């Protein structure tokens, strides 16, 4: 379900994965495939292009054939730095793209109507930003970001040392797009080995999730 607004997909794959003992969470296998491949399979029909945000050696994601971009904000500045990197890349390499959708690389059950529902929520509210919510939980990293706000985001990160997504989005206004959290939360993320085991059970029980 592609939105009428040209959208660049940004997979945030650069987390430190401390609770998984290090390594790359997106390469964890769930339901016979890596989480990253499940994310890409869901996101590709919704976006005109996809890029990955990851720090370190980009060769570990070479099999995807996708551009891998690193943060350019000093230190590990968190997901906002990855989002900024995606907005900057879009401005240079995809000037016809007005919005970027970001998703974490550790969510194996992402919805196939993510982009269009975020876009509709944003349009209905008149706000420039949108993020996902399932049940009572907001997912600030799963969001729609206008490329036009990249200069403001860079200033917040580099001049104000702002790191919390909610603080920055509150300045501009953000819409919420809702999904049910049952029977499978589409934004279930794998942070620990126990999460990976739970995701495997869900993938077996709900193969269409």
Structural account:
This protein is of the alpha/beta class and 209 residues long. The protein has one domain (7-202): Spore Coat Polysaccharide Biosynthesis Protein SpsA, Chain A. Helix content is 32%, strand content 22%. It is built from 6 helices and 9 strands, in the order E-E-E-H-E-E-H-E-H-E-E-H-H-E-H. It has helices at residues 35-43, 79-93, 114-125, 150-158, 165-172, 193-205; strands at residues 7-12, 29-30, 33-34, 49-53, 68-69, 99-104, 129-134, 137-146, 174-179. A hairpin with a 2-residue loop joins strand 2 (29-30) and strand 3 (33-34). It starts with 6 loop residues before the first strand and ends with a helix. Residues 16-21 have low confidence and may be disordered.
Topology:
Elements: E1 7-12, E2 29-30, E3 33-34, H1 35-43, E4 49-53, E5 68-69, H2 79-93, E6 99-104, H3 114-125, E7 129-134, E8 137-146, H4 150-158, H5 165-172, E9 174-179, H6 193-205
Parallel strand pairs: 1-4, 1-6, 4-5, 7-9
Antiparallel strand pairs: 2-3, 6-8, 7-8
Helix pairs in contact: 2-4
Q: State the helix count.
A: 6
Helix/strand class: alpha/beta
Please report the first level of CATH classification, the CATH class. Answer: Alpha Beta
Helix content: 25-40%
Report strand %: 15-25%
Q: What would you say the CATH architecture is? A: Alpha-Beta Complex
How much is the average pLDDT? 93
Low-confidence stretches: 16-21
Strand order of the largest sheet: 5-4-1-6-8-7-9
Report how far apart the termini are: 16 Å
H/E topology pattern: EEEHEEHEHEEHHEH
Largest sheet: 7 strands, mixed
CATH homology-level superfamily = Spore Coat Polysaccharide Biosynthesis Protein SpsA, Chain A
Number of domains: 1
């Amino acid at each position: 379900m592609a939105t009428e607004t040209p959208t660049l997909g940004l997979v945030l794959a650069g987390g430190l994965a401390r609770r998984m003992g290090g390594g790359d969470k997106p390469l964890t296998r769930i339901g016979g495939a890596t989480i990253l491949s499940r994310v890409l399979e869901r996101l590709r029909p919704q976006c005109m292009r996809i890029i990955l945000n990851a720090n370190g050696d980009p060769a570990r994601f070479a099999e995807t054939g996708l551009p891998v971009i690193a943060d350019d904000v000093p230190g590990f500045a968190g997901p906002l730095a990855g989002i900024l990197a995606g907005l900057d890349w879009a401005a240079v390499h995809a000037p016809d793209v007005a919005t970027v959708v970001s998703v974490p690389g550790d969510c194996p059950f992402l919805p196939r109507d993510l982009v269009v529902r975020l876009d509709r929520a944003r349009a209905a509210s008149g706000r420039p930003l949108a993020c996902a919510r399932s049940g009572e939980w907001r997912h600030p990293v799963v969001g729609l970001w206008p490329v036009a706000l990249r200069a403001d985001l860079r200033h917040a990160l580099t001049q104000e040392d702002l790191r919390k997504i909610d603080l920055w989005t509150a300045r501009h206004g953000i819409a919420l797009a809702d999904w049910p959290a049952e029977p499978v939360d589409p934004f279930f993320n794998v942070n620990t080995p126990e999460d990976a085991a739970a995701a495997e059970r869900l993938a077996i029980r709900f193969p269409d999730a």
